[in-house]
Structure formats: C-alpha cells, structure tokens
Amino acid sequence: MKSFKPLVVIISVFIILSGHNVFAKAMSNADFNGRYIVGHFLEDIGESDPIHTDVLQFDADGKGKISGKGLYSNTGDTGSFNLNYSISQDGRISIDIDTESSLVGIISPDGQYFTLTKSGTNTEPLIMFGIKESTGRSVADLNGNYEMHGILYEDDELQIGGSQTMIFNGSGYWQWHDDPSGSGTYTVNSMGHLTMASHNGMESNDGSVLFIVSTDDPDVLEIIVGIRQSTEMIASDLMGEYCFTEIGTDNPAVSSDDYFYSLDVNSKNAYSFQELANSCGCPLKSGTGNYLMNSNGNFSLGKTAFGTLAEHGNVFAMFGYDEDFGYFGIGIPTSNSMEHELYYPHAASNTKWETEICAINTSSESIDGVFKVYNDKGEAISNDIETTLGAHARKEIIVGDDFTTPSDIGYIIFESDSENVIGYTKFYIDGLYRVAVPAVLTLLKATYTFHTLPAIIIGGPALVSSIQWQPKRI
C-alpha cells in the first residue's frame, strides 16, 4: 500500500467581519458627524408654560461643532443655535451650555443614535434622543410590533413611564395592539422623517427604532421612543456596558429632575448601575440587581424597571417607578461594550466529517458568552448555547451532538463579555484524519499553515482553499 507523506499547505484567508455590537473601539469627535433629527422634551413644572416639546435638527461636523435649528415646537421657537461638543473614547458626549450646566450623554458606536440630558443644579430637566438622517426610506421600513415608551403631559398632569405596543403595517397605517380603535396613518419621507397626526419624528436607517414628539396639540405633549420587537433574543443580548439618560418626577408631579447613569449588565442575569450626574444635587446612587429578557426584546431590571432592546443592540428605551417616583429613559452601549465576537468560519457535520469547536478563557476572571449558529445566508438557525467560562477554562462543543440541524450550519459565533477569548475549529474523521485552525477574533488577513494529508485536501470539509468569506446578519 502506498504511503503518503504529510503535505504542508499555505492558505491565505481574507476574513471580513460584520454584525452588531462589535464595539471595543476608541471613539472621537469624528464619530459624531452628519445630520441628526432630535426629539426634545423639557420640563419646567410650576411655570405658566411647564413643558417644551421640540423636533430639532443637529448638523455635526465631526470636529466638535454643531449647527442646529428647530423644526417643530409647541412654543413656536424654531430658531437656530450653535453648540460645541466633545466625544470621549467610550462614546460619552459633553456639550457646555453655560457656566452652571451642560448636556451629557452617549453616542452609539455606529454613530446612528445619541441621547442627552442636562447636568447641573437648578436647571430644567430635559431628555433628547437623536437618530441620524439617512436616504431611501419609506413607510415600508416601519413594519411590525413596536414597544412604545415615553413621557406624557396631558390635562395639566405629567405621566412618566409606561409602554404600549403599536403595530405598523408597512403601508402607512398603524394601530394600538390592545385597542384597535386607536389607529391612524403615518408617512415617512425619503430621509426617514416621520409624521403621525400631530406628531413628528424620525425612523432609523433600518426601521427598527423611531421617535415621535407631539408639538401641535397644547393639551397632549409627549415624546415617545419606539423599538421594534424581535423574536429570538436571549439574556446575553443585553450584556454590556451602557450609559443611560433619565428624566423623572415624583407623583403627584410637583418637582422633576434628570439623571445620567452607567449600567453594566455583567452576566446572564445580573446588572449594576452607577449614577454619574443629576440636576437635583442629590448624592449619586449605585446599586445591583437581576434582570430578565424575553425573546421579543422586552426586559426587566429588578421588579420596577421595564424596557425594550433594539434587535441590533444599539439602543433601548425604559420606564420605571420606585414608590412615588416615576422615570423614562434611553440607554445606548458604550464603545467598550459587549459583544466581543469569536468566529468559527466553517462547520462540517455529516456522515463523513465532524467538527469540534472550542472557546478558551485566557484571563483570571470568569466570562459569560453564547455560541450562536448561522447558515450561509446569515440567518440564525439551530439552538444557541449559553455558557460561563471559569478562569482559564475551556468549552468544547461537538457540532453534530450539541446543535440541532448541524448539516445546515454555515458558521458559528461565540459572543462574550470579554476580549480574552481564543479558540479553534477542528475537523476530523474518527480514526483517520484531524486538522485544526484558529478561530478568528477580528478583521485580518491571516496566513495559516496546515500539516495534513493529501486526502484531507481532496475530500475535506471545503475549508482548505483561498476564500472570500463574509458573514451576514438579518
């Protein structure tokens, strides 16, 4: 019988990564660049004109300057203004207004969203939410069930918090899920500007997020943020580091304040928060708790806070209450945030070949993560596997044993809350052949050296060739 000598094969693999929440980058003023449409709600309880609602336009130059103007306002103020801003490495925004107060907030790592509130004592509490203008938008973008969170001033009463589900049909018609008699029409222009009766607002570039502000009805003044419900979200989708702007008031509403928090969702069901600033001059609070996530993106922090996370993970809206205090707010992940992603670009599991994948924790701290499975079209398939890697621990998975429909798998991603994860993919036929390649951490051009046999090159699992590979998300 002829014997075969090991064959050394050099393969250059270009791997282009895409997907949500691969943040971990240093941000700068350049990330705040372009035109944003901004919803603005300001409280001044006790004054003759206690609420201001506006839709604003921010033109950020990417160099620290904003030129803005009002588009719609319940007070009729649509003048222009100029602001100076700075962006920290983690995405936090700071805008000086005067010697006593400033605007503080956060911009999303992809630059599509931001939220602001006011820092400084003796100031009128406010909250802003901005969505970047885009092109090619239409009513068809708004399609599905949206959880609508907001703050309402009606009949001289301020009502903070609460959420309802609104259904958009993608053809210009909406209705409340629980009250079909509450319905109407909406329009979206090519840049994403949204109009609904006496409300004006903006939709995101993928239609998953929107806001509306009422400016024409003096008896009903509100800002509402809508998040489209998903279908396959799990607890680890919320994991990460966020900044959260909040506007809150006591009940009955005789005073109100705004707050700025950091929120760290640091394992599959635990979170911690730290207050960073407020307008009441109160001691800065901190705390911990547990959270629950539903598959549609609705979640709860403890027993008194309820929110909805967008399907791409770049923003959430939330309301809550604590005894006689209610609040509404918007959270956006910092650029430090989860998820870090480790890619297994190919899997073969059939009557001949099998695949083993492994994730290894290189740090002295435990790491929470989840293995997610996709087909060649980028569609999520099979079952997700959540795991906790102890210090310096490893997790091995046999694709054919641990995932459903293994023959349909195109690639696998391990999403975690740490960059300290490495891994490998091993292809084998029991008793005959084995070959292992490193898992992929980031955008790279990698040259791999395989020591294997000619039979693997000829009949192997279709990895050993020069390829262009690009995972896609839906």
Which properties best describe this structure?
2 helices, Hypothetical Protein Tm1070, Chain: A, 474 residues, nine-stranded antiparallel beta sheet, mainly beta, disordered C terminus, eight-stranded antiparallel barrel, disordered N terminus
Q: What is the CA-atom radius of gyration, in angstroms?
A: 25 Å
- Tally of domains: 2
The strand order across the widest sheet is 13-12-11-10-18-17-16-15-14
From the spread of the alpha carbons, the general shape counts as globular
Give me the secondary-structure category: mainly beta
Number of strands: 36
Low-confidence stretches: 1-23, 442-474
Q: Number of DSSP helices?
A: 2
The end-to-end span amounts to: 51 Å
Question: What percent strand?
Answer: over 45%
What is the arithmetic mean of pLDDT? 82
Largest sheet: 9 strands, antiparallel
Helix content: under 10%
Q: What does this molecule look like?
A:
With 474 residues, the chain is mostly beta strands. The protein has 2 domains: 7-22 and 339-469, TM1070-like (Hypothetical Protein Tm1070, Chain: A); 23-337, no CATH class. Helix content is 2%, strand content 55%. The chain has 2 helices and 36 strands. The protein has helices at 399-402, 454-459; strands at 7-15, 33-43, 51-61, 65-73, 80-87, 92-96, 102-107, 113-119, 126-132, 143-154, 157-169, 173-176, 183-185, 187-188, 193-196, 199-203, 209-214, 220-228, 240-250, 256-265, 270-278, 286-293, 298-301, 305-309, 316-322, 325-333, 340-344, 354-361, 367-374, 380-389, 394-398, 411-416, 421-429, 433-438, 444-452, 468-469. The chain has a 9-stranded antiparallel sheet with strand order 13-12-11-10-18-17-16-15-14, with no helix packed on it. The protein is globular and about 80 Å long.
